């Protein structure tokens, strides 16, 4: 992904108390600074729980190092009687740049299907927030060798009805479910196979110029000791990092992979 700036996004999931969240953001910016991180070489983003976003906004705005941030989910609705939901407008008011959509844990535990992921993706885009659209097969699909058609069908579903301009503005994260939180990282070749298939599909549907702009991340047990080989793949433009994003040194080393 030479023309695309690498994106390293840390998905905290439902972890850390507020004081720990503050400490992690502060230590992360110090550590990136200490490691002479070059923001031109990778964009670093954290996805904290909703309840930490206002504080992260304050911390980030006061710091000279650019740390991006966003949410882990967003409602498909604009506003109204949707108890417990958070709207894209609320996230925009917090200056969020990104939002994860359709993470496998949302799909698995909250019954999110492609149609809902599509609605959330469109809503995020219309509110000016970059969706990180998560796709990826489970172990049964991988064992049956169907990872490419399965994942492409999720991509088709998530991006249905979007304009080429909208697609050009989003991020896709390929996260094989069997690699998430398991310590079992996909091989660089496995990651490249599906990420390149996704880019080809984008090219078929929206043209090569659009496909060329979209950053495609890999996610699933990324650590500082495996990030370089994954990032060396031509169609992998960054990583979505779960567990390792809670450890400052690890996540800073992942961000500083170059
Ligand atoms: C994730 O939650 O998106 C993820 C990739 O988790 P982990 O890095 O812990 O496998």
Automatic annotation (TrEMBL):
The entry's localization annotation reads: Cytoplasm
Q: Which UniProt keywords apply?
A: Cytoplasm, Gluconeogenesis, Glycolysis, Isomerase
SUPFAM superfamilies assigned to the protein according to its UniProt record, in alphabetical order = Triosephosphate isomerase (TIM)
- InterPro entries under this entry? Aldolase_TIM (IPR013785), TIM_sf (IPR035990), TrioseP_Isoase_bac/euk (IPR022896), Triosephosphate_isomerase (IPR000652), Triosephosphate_isomerase_AS (IPR020861)
Name one matching Pfam family.
Answer: TIM
Active site per the UniProt annotation: 103, 175
Annotated binding of substrate, by residue: 11-13, 181, 221, 242-243
Q: Which reaction does it catalyse?
A: D-glyceraldehyde 3-phosphate = dihydroxyacetone phosphate
- Predominant location: cytoplasm
Q: What class of enzyme is it?
A: isomerase
Might you give the EC number(s) for this enzyme? 5.3.1.1
Q: Which GO terms describe its molecular function?
A: triose-phosphate isomerase activity
Name the pathway: Carbohydrate biosynthesis; gluconeogenesis; Carbohydrate degradation; glycolysis; D-glyceraldehyde 3-phosphate from glycerone phosphate: step 1/1
State the NCBIfam families in the record.
Answer: tim
Q: What family is this protein classified in?
A: Belongs to the triosephosphate isomerase family.
Task: Share what the entry says about its subunit structure, partners included.
Answer: Homodimer.
Summary of the function given for this chain in its UniProt record: Involved in the gluconeogenesis. Catalyzes stereospecifically the conversion of dihydroxyacetone phosphate (DHAP) to D-glyceraldehyde-3-phosphate (G3P).
User: What is the protein's name according to its record?
Assistant: Triosephosphate isomerase
User: What organism, scientifically named, is this protein from?
Assistant: Microlunatus panaciterrae
Q: Which gene encodes it?
A: tpiA
